[in-house]
Amino acid sequence: MHRSHTCWELNKSHIGQEVTLSWWVANSRDHGWVIFIDLRDRYGITQTVFDPIDNKDAWELANKFRSEYVVKLTGKVKARMEGQANPNLSTWEIEVIIVKAELLMESKTPPFEISDHVEANEEIRLKHRYLDLRRKSVLENIVFRANMNRFTRNWFSDKGFLEVQTPIFTVSSPEWARDYVVPSRLHPGQFYALPQAPQQYKQLLMVGWIDKYFQVAPCFRDEDPRADRHSCEFYQIDVEMSFVEQDDIFQVAEWFIHDLIPTVTPNKRIFVPKIPEGIKKLIGRDWNVDWRFIKLTHKESQMFYGSDKPDLRFDMHFEDFTLDFNKSEFSVFKDAVDNGGCVKAMKMDGVNMSRKDIDEVTEVARGGWAKWLAYIIYEEEGPRSPILKYFSESEIKALQDRFSPKAGDMIFFWAGSFKAVIKSMNVVRLALRDRFNLVDKNALTFAWITDFPMFEIDKDTGKVDFEHNPFSMPHWWAAAFDNPNVEEIYWVQYDMSCNGYEILSGSIRNHDLKALTKAMEMVWKSEQDVKNKFWAMYNAFQFWVPPHGWFAFWFDRLMMILTDEENIRAIYAFPKSGKAEDAMMNAPSFLEPEQLEELHIDIREEVKEELGLD
Amino acid sequence: MHRSHTCWELNKSHIGQEVTLSWWVANSRDHGWVIFIDLRDRYGITQTVFDPIDNKDAWELANKFRSEYVVKLTGKVKARMEGQANPNLSTWEIEVIIVKAELLMESKTPPFEISDHVEANEEIRLKHRYLDLRRKSVLENIVFRANMNRFTRNWFSDKGFLEVQTPIFTVSSPEWARDYVVPSRLHPGQFYALPQAPQQYKQLLMVGWIDKYFQVAPCFRDEDPRADRHSCEFYQIDVEMSFVEQDDIFQVAEWFIHDLIPTVTPNKRIFVPKIPEGIKKLIGRDWNVDWRFIKLTHKESQMFYGSDKPDLRFDMHFEDFTLDFNKSEFSVFKDAVDNGGCVKAMKMDGVNMSRKDIDEVTEVARGGWAKWLAYIIYEEEGPRSPILKYFSESEIKALQDRFSPKAGDMIFFWAGSFKAVIKSMNVVRLALRDRFNLVDKNALTFAWITDFPMFEIDKDTGKVDFEHNPFSMPHWWAAAFDNPNVEEIYWVQYDMSCNGYEILSGSIRNHDLKALTKAMEMVWKSEQDVKNKFWAMYNAFQFWVPPHGWFAFWFDRLMMILTDEENIRAIYAFPKSGKAEDAMMNAPSFLEPEQLEELHIDIREEVKEELGLD
User: Are B544 and A107 in contact (CB < 8 Å)?
Assistant: First the structure.
C-alpha cells in the first residue's frame, strides 16, 4: 500500500493512528536537529516531523529531500503543540512523526518554478503542461470543467432528455465551415469527415422518435484559432426536441442556466436589468417578463447595441437622432442624413474622462471605422463641446428629452451609414466598459437575440448565400420566399448572448421538405444539388418528420465566462496553441511514407519541394 | 403548443381534462361510424376516438389518417367503458374524445415495415437507420447506453475520480495499431492523429498531480472491423490512478462491476463458480476469496482453458495426462510425448452426443488445428471408445482419479504440441458450450488474467517485439531484463474476462525512466529512438513521476454482453457497417479537389488511375 490517507484527510480524529503518505515534498525546514517537511498533494498539505530519536535512517534520508521529490512516509499522527498550529493549513491541528521513509523517485530541476503566483512564459508552460497542471489555478479550471460536465449531463437526463452518442466519423459537407477529414484505408481515395456538429444526426434522431435528445458533443471545425474559439476540437451542449415551438426551447435553456449558475458558480448572479426607456418606447413592449431572459430581435439588437451579442450588463444603448438633426448646421450630421445615413448618440453616466482618455477612445472609434468621435461633456457649469456651437435649441432639447444628462455624464455622437455607425458605436461602447469598469464582474446578463436574417447578398457578385444553417424554418414557411426582398426573409433562429459573448445558437428546424428544398434552391439552384449534398436528410424527410427545434450552448465559451478567463485555452487540460499546435506532444507532425501509402494519399509536390521532403 | 402530454402519461387522473397530443398514428379502426385511432410515441400508446357528433371536420380528416402519419389532436380525456379496457396498453383506462385534428406531415410508404418483430435486411435498415430507431429493441439499446454512461460517470465522480477530457487531436505513434490521421491545413505536410487511447495524456495527468482520473473516452483505431470491435470510433471507461498497486486497482474495477450490474441489468447475476479440484491441486490456492473475482495468471489460464479470456461460467478445464500416458500403447499419445508434446483431456458432464454431434464437433476440432478428436463415452454399461483397447489399467485409473466420470459423461483427448493442443481444446470447449447450452445466459463470470508475458520473438526473424503496451512495469523492474530468456519476462499487466470476452485491460505503469528506457531498447535499440518516439513522456518522466497504474473497460463490448447482443453494431445509435461505412450518410466519400489542395495532399496516382479520377 502506497498511502492510507490524502493530505487533506488527516485531522485531530486520527491522532494516535499510524498512517502512510505518498506524495511530493513541498518544503523542508531544518530546526537544528529535528527536520520538518511539508508533504503536498492536490488536496492539501500535511506537516511531517523527522527526529533521529524516532528513526535515524528516516532522519538521514530526510536530510536529502528537496522540493518536489516523490516520497513515501510512514508515521504516527500527533497533536501539534499549543501555539504551533498553522491556520494556513487545512490539517493544521496535527503533524505526523515519521518512523519510516522511502524516496520513490528522484527528479531533475523543473524548467520553471511551480507556484500559484509566478507566471512563467506560456510557451514553456504548454510544452511542460504536466508541470503546469500542478498550479492551483490550472487545476481549478479542470475541476470546474468536470463539475460542469457532470451537472449538465445529470440535469438533462433528469429532465427526460436521452443522451445519444452520435458518430465522430461522418461525411463531408463543404458548404459550412471547413471540415477536418480522415483518409480511409479500406476505401481508396475516399475520406471521412469529423462532424462540425452532430446536426444531421440529431435531426435524424427526431425522425426516429427520440423526442428529447442531448449530448455534450465534441465538434470539429478547421477554422483559424482565436481567443474564444479553440482550434481542432471543441464541445457543445447539444439539444434537439420534437413537437416544440420557440418558447418551449427558450424555457428549457433558461431553466438550465437558472439551475446551473448557483450550483457551479455561487459567486456569480444572474442580473436582468430594466429595459432602458428609450428602447421600450420604440419597441412598444418590455424586453423580459418575470424571471425570463431579455429578448430582442436581431434587428433591434443591431439598432440599439450594434451587435448580435450585446453586453447588457450596462445600458449605453444607441439613440437615433437622424430626424432631429436633419437640418443641422453641423455639416457632418447634415451630410450624413442627406446621403441616406443616420445620426446616433449614446450616453455614459458619471465618468470623468481626461484628455488622454478621450484621445485614446477616439483612436478606438477610428479602428471601428468612424472618422472621428464627437462628444458633449456635461459639467456642473453646463455642457461643453467643440461642436456645441452648431446645435440649435431644438436639437439641444432633443438631447435633453432623450438622455436627461446630469453633471458628469458624456454623450458621444456618430454620423454616417447605418452599418458603419453601429459598428463603431459597438466598439467604443465595449472599450468604455473595459476602460472605466462599467460592469459588475460577477453579474451575468443573458439575452435572446431572435429572428436572424436568412440570406446575405454578396455586394459584388449579387450571389445569394445563407447567413446561417439552412435547415432552419423561415417565418411563414415556404410562403416566406414570396418576398422579393430576400434580405428581409427571417428565420425562426436565435442566439443567446451573455456579457458580450455568443453562448448559444439554435432554431426551429425546417421540417417541411418543400420549404426546405425551396430555401436551398435559392442558393444552390437545383433540387438534384440539394439531394446530393444532403442525401440522408433528403431521404429521411420523406418519412413523417415531426416539427422540431434545437439549441447548442458553446460549452467551452460558457466555461470561459464563468471562470473569468480571457482565453479559451485556459479551460482545456491539454490545450492547442494559437497555431493549433500541441507543443507538449509535438502535434501535428510528419508521417512515415508507409503510412501515407497505406492511406492512398501523398503530400502535394509543391509542398514537398518547399519542405525539402523526399 | 404541440402537446400537453406524452402517450405514456395519460391515465385515470386526467379524466375530464383537455389535452393535446402530437405523434404518429399507430393504427386506425373504423367501427362503422366512430373511428378509433391509436396514437403512438416512444413512451406508449393512447386510444383516441373520432365521432362526427363531437366534431365533423376532425372526423373527416381522421378518415384519411394512415399508419405513421404525424398528427396533432386535441380532445377530452374520458374513462373507457367497462369491458373495453385493453390490458396491453399502459394507458388502457382512458381514451381521448377528439374535437380538433391537424395533419402535421404527410409521408411516403416506408421501405420496410416498422415492427418490433419483423427483421428486415440489415443493409436496408442501416441505410434508413432513422426508421430502424423506431423499433423497440433498437431504442432499448440506445437507452441502455445512456444509462450505462450516466451510471459510470456518476459512479467514478462519486468515488473521487476527476473526469478530464483529453485531446482528440494528437500525434501519431505508428508503433501500435494503425492511426487514423487528419491532414493539417495550417502546417503543410503535417498530420494530427486521433488517439488510439488517451494513454500518454492520462499518464501525464499523473505527473500533474491528478491522482484519480477517469473518462468515458472516445478511441480511434484503424483496424479491420469484427463482431466485437466497432470500426472508426469506440469508447472505453478509462481510469488511471497514482500511488496504487495491482490490488488497489482490482478493487476499484470489481467494486464498479458489483454496483453496476444490479443497477443497469437486474436480470443478470454475478456468478463466481467454485474452483475445480484439479486446478486447485496444481496451483495450490483458491482462485478467489469472498466476493472477489477469480484470479488466474496468463500462464494458468492458457494451461487450463487455452485462452486469455476464458469463459468460466462452466468448468470443462483441461487436465494434463502427459506423464500418465508417456508409455501409452496408443501411438498417437506416445509419439506426441516423445516429440516433447503433451496429452490433455477435458470432461463434459451428462450430455448425450449423437453420432452427428460427434462428427460436427470433430470438424470444429479440425478447424482448431487438431487432426482428430479422441473421446470416451461413459454409459451405464461402462466406458465405450474406439481407443479404449489401447489403454492400460493404470491409464484408466488416472482418468478415474482425475475425472470421476459418471454415466452420461464424455472425456475428450488431445495430443501434440502444447500450443496446438490448447488452441484446439479451447475452440472445442466453446463449441460444446454453444451446442449444448452449458451455461446460464444470465450469469456473468468475471476473471482477472494476470502476469502477461512482455515480449514475443518472431519465429522467423528472431526479432523481439512487445506483446503489449511497453509502458507497463515488468515484475522486478529493471532487474527483469537480466533474465536471458526474454519470453519469461512478465509484466504487471492484466485483463478482465467475462463470459469468454476480454472486457478490460490494464497494468501497473513503468514509472522508472531507467527501466522504461531499458525495456524499449530491447525492441528499438537506441535511447535516441525512444526519445523520438515518446518525446512528451521522455521529458515528463524526468520530473517526479509517482507510481501509477490503469485500467480501461471496453465499454461497447461490455454493453454488448449485458444486452445479449452478438454484434457490437447493435449498441451504437448510428453504427458503421462491417466495411466501416455509414450507409445512411454515404461515408466515407470523395472530396472536392479544392479541399485536397487546401490540405496540401493528393490522392496517389495509382489510385486515381484505378478509379478513373481526374
Answer: yes
How many helices and strands, by DSSP H and E, does chain B display?
18, 25
Give B256-292 pLDDT, tens digit per residue: 999 999 999 999 999 999 999 999 999 999 999 999 9
CATH number for the domain harbouring residue B331: 3.30.1360.30
- The CA R_g of chain B, rounded to the nearest whole Å, is 31
The verdict on a CB contact (< 8 Å) between B540 and A41 is: no
What is the rounded CA–CA span in Å between residue A201 and residue A207? Answer: 10
- Between residues A477 and B415, which one has the greater pLDDT? B415
Buried b (16+ CB within 10 A) or exposed e, B104-138: bbebeebeeebeeeeebeeeebbbbbbbbbbbeeb
- Option in A134, A192, A208 nearest B208 (CB): A134
Chain B partners of A1 at a C-beta cutoff of 8 Å? 245, 248
In a domain, A563, yes or no: no
Question: Angle at Cα B128 formed by Cα B127 and Cα B131, nearest 5°?
Answer: 155
- CATH number of domain containing A19: 2.40.50.140
What are the two backbone dihedrals, phi and then psi, of residue B28, each rounded to the nearest 5 degrees?
-135, 130
pLDDT value at position B86?
A: 65
Residue of B nearest to A586 (CA): B171
Contacts across the A-B interface (CB distance below 8 Å): 372
Interchain contact B576–A (C-beta under 8 A): yes
Identify the bridge partners of residue B608 per DSSP, sorted by sequence position: none
Residue ending a domain, choose from A55, A73, A105 = A105
CB contact under 8 A, B584 and A146: no
- The residue type at A574: F
Residue A485 has pLDDT above 70, yes or no: yes
Q: Give me the domain span that covers residue B82.
A: 12-105
pLDDT band at A556 (very low <50, low <70, confident <90, very high): very high
Report pLDDT for A247: 96
* Region of residue B160 (left: phi > 0; alpha: psi -120 to 50; beta: else): left
Q: How many CA atoms lie within 13 A of B161 on its CB side?
A: 25
**Of A77, A105, A133, at which residue does a domain stop?**
A105
Looking at residue B175, what is its pLDDT?
66
- Closest residue, chain A, to B543 (C-alpha): A107
Q: How many domains does chain A have?
A: 2
Q: Higher confidence at residue A529 or residue B43?
A: B43
Task: Name the residue with higher pLDDT: A607 or B476.
Answer: A607
Backbone angles phi, psi at B304, to 5 degrees: -95, -25
Cell of A224: 483559424
Q: CA of A73, closest CA in chain B: separation in Å? A: 12
The answer to the question of residue B346 being in a domain is yes
Q: Is residue B31 part of a domain?
A: yes
User: For position B354, what pLDDT does the model report?
Assistant: 86
CA–CA separation, A353 vs A408, rounded Å?
9
Q: Is residue B166, in this structure, part of any structural domain at all?
A: no
Q: How many Å lie between the alpha carbon of B124 and the closest alpha carbon of chain A?
A: 13
Query: Is the distance from CB of B72 to CB of B21 less than 8 angstroms?
Result: yes
Mean pLDDT computed over A382-405: 93
Mention every residue, 6+ apart, whose C-beta is less than 8 A from residue A465. A455, A456, A457, A458, A523
Q: Over 70: is that where the pLDDT of B174 sits? A: no
Residue A372's pLDDT is 75
